[in-house]
Write a structure and sequence with these properties.
By secondary structure, the protein is mainly alpha-helical. It is 35% helix and 0% strand. The chain is built from two helices and no strands.
Length: 65
C-alpha cells in the first residue's frame, strides 16, 4: 500500500527529478549551507513524540533501507 502511494507521487512529479541521478556530490560553492552549533551544546532531553500506527509503519519502512 505504501509502495503504491510512493510510486504515484513519483509518477506525478517525475518532471521534477533528473532522468539520471549524479554519481557524485556537487562541487563546493562560495556559499555552502552550514548549521553552526554552539560548542558544548546538547540536544534537549525529551522522549520522541508518538506517531499513529500507519505513519510509524511507514517510517519503519524507510529506516530499513
Amino acid at each position: 500500500e505504501v509502495l503504491d502511494e510512493v510510486a504515484e507521487v513519483l509518477e506525478k512529479f517525475k518532471d521534477v527529478f533528473p532522468p539520471e541521478f549524479p554519481k557524485r556530490l556537487p562541487l563546493h560553492r562560495a556559499i555552502d549551507h552550514a548549521i553552526e552549533l554552539e560548542p558544548g551544546a546538547r540536544p534537549p532531553a525529551q522522549a520522541p513524540y508518538r506517531m499513529c500506527p500507519a505513519r510509524s509503519s511507514w517510517m519503519g519502512y524507510w529506516r530499513q533501507d
